[in-house]
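[retry 2/3] Helix-turn-helix domain-containing protein: previous attempt timed out, resubmitting with same input.
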Amino acid sequence: MKQDSDLRNNLKSIRTRLGMSQQDLANIANVTRQTISGVESGLYAPSVAITLRLAKALGCQVEDLFWLERDLPEIEAVLAKPVPNGQQLRVSMARVGGQWIAYPLIGKDAFRQDMIPADGEGETCTGTNKIRVRLLDDNLDTLHNTVVIAGCAPVISLWARATERWHPQLRVQYNFANSMAALHSLCRGEAHIAGMHLYDPETGEYNTPFVRDVLAGREAVLITLGVWEEGLLLKSGNPMGIRTVNDLVAGGATIVNREIGSGSRMLLEQTLQKEQIPFDAVQGFDNILKSHQDVAQAVVRGVADAGMSTASVATAFGLGFIPLHQSRYDLVILKEYLEEAPVQQLLSTLGHRMVHSQFEILGGYDISKIGEVVATV
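[retry 2/3] Helix-turn-helix domain-containing protein: success.
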């Protein structure tokens, strides 16, 4: 047997998982223990006959045991969020606005429910927002066909997964961000699409004034995803008899709030101001959570008596709900991205009946105008 520097194997991990010693495996495969040791350490490349014997002895396929380490490409990318210098990172990748963007898979993003696979790994560079990424696969088509959406609507993940079923070559990456954070992510070139639900009481408009302000002259279109009911999530059965924000104060209820920049927090502040209720009069106003799901879980667990979210989230978590406002959820897309094939494929599915069915089953959404262009900025 000759040494092969490109040959890799996981013979030891499979053997130990099955509770076999090197000698046990050697006896079954009719080879010497030294052969097993040499293969596991990478000192020797087994012959075809020995490879087949080992696979049969372990009850697996040859490709499960051995593979060739290929010279995979490296790409320089811009990090979508700051991380400590010199940190080794798993990242997902996408091509946005003519540059490669690397999204660190750390913290909650490392173990999300939809579990984004890593496209590569790399180490951050000191004094820069760049990272040199060693790809784990040489299929660049997947990265070029990735559409990145930043937003906070849970239904976006349903839409993304449904779209990938109809367009297997398309990948949709959904990065959680509140409305203002999503808009700034779009502006920085980290996403193709930003989802938002912000209401401006001065103009009576949804989203457009904020887009106009943040994008500062860049051209974009706003496409409606749906209109959803926003309001107070309450414990099942509403034991405190809460009907309005005034009842929160009168009953001494404790709430959880969202971070600055989120549509839910903005609605709560606008509602309190309208009722002339000081923010500090509401217990828990400064207890900040980062998502609709986190707010719902806090109410379910009894950490809080109430929190701002949507009717669909209330239904999903079996909570009570007091509607306060109907908000339009829009998708903001820079015009320069509209002609890109992956983005067009994604948007085309907004008219698909299966997408509509997913929204309708979830509840709390009016999708009568889904897919309509409601503004051009």
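[retry 2/3] Helix-turn-helix domain-containing protein: The longest strand covers residues 220-234.
[retry 2/3] clearing retry counter.
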